[in-house]
Design brief:
The protein is of the alpha+beta class. It has 8 helices and 8 strands. Helix 1 crosses helix 3.
Length: 217
């Protein structure tokens, strides 16, 4: 089992969630706009939902199938949101999903968070491809992906059924060679670092035990 690291950017710390985060998780996920734009976040969101989500995170982390990070603001240790990466080491690829609490939209936190997790994916997990999706009616999330260097690959029509409707999902991705071209110094330092346990783990879909500008919880 790979021990999940803590990641750091100029303004943020990305670390594993803790039980003490539950009140902030519940408060941030009471926002209906987040529920509308993310596949499997229930509404209203309860403390029990948060506890089940944290238990799922621990199990996935132990299995090496998914790593979820709390996005914390450095200056005051405020929880801003979450990001996860779900590796499929057989094919050296991963899916990323994220959300940022509505009070913190429009400040560049989502882009900064996504760039940090891409670096983790390519340097630490030695991935070849990372992709993410968002609902067609959430173009702000697509702009975050573009700013992080990801390329639009197409639309999956009526791919997700949510709130009584089939919804289109748009997909963006970035390849290792593209990430290395934009990050030549940092990329070389992490080449071929594959945690043994993570390499063995299958790619399993996130299942919030009914349930985590972004994609999926």
């Amino acid at each position: 089992m790979m021990r999940q690291p803590t990641l750091e950017t100029s303004r943020l710390i990305l670390r594993p969630f803790r039980e003490a985060d539950i009140p902030d998780i519940v408060a941030l996920l009471q926002e209906r706009d987040i529920h509308r734009m993310i596949t499997d976040i229930p509404y209203p969101y309860s403390e029990q939902n948060a506890r089940e989500w944290l238990a799922h995170q621990q199990k996935s982390r132990e299995e090496g199938t998914e790593y979820t990070f709390a996005v914390m603001r450095k200056e005051d240790q405020q929880l801003l949101g979450a990001i996860k990466i779900r590796p499929d080491m057989r094919h050296r690829k991963a899916e990323v999903g994220y959300w940022i609490g509505k009070p913190y939209w429009g400040r560049g936190y989502a882009t900064e968070t996504l760039k940090a997790i891409l670096r983790f994916g390519f340097e630490t997990l030695a991935l070849n491809r990372v992709y993410a999706t968002h609902f067609a009616e959430n173009p702000a999330s697509g702009r975050v992906m573009q700013k992080a260097g990801m390329t639009y690959e197409g639309a999956m029509r009526q791919a997700i059924y949510k709130n009584g409707h089939f919804r289109d999902s748009l997909i963006y991705a970035i390849l290792r060679e593209e990430w290395e071209a934009s990050s030549p110094v940092t990329a070389r330092s992490g080449r071929n670092r594959i945690p043994r346990r993570a390499a063995a783990g299958p790619n399993r879909a996130h299942r919030h035990p009914r349930p985590a500008p972004g994609t999926r919880h």
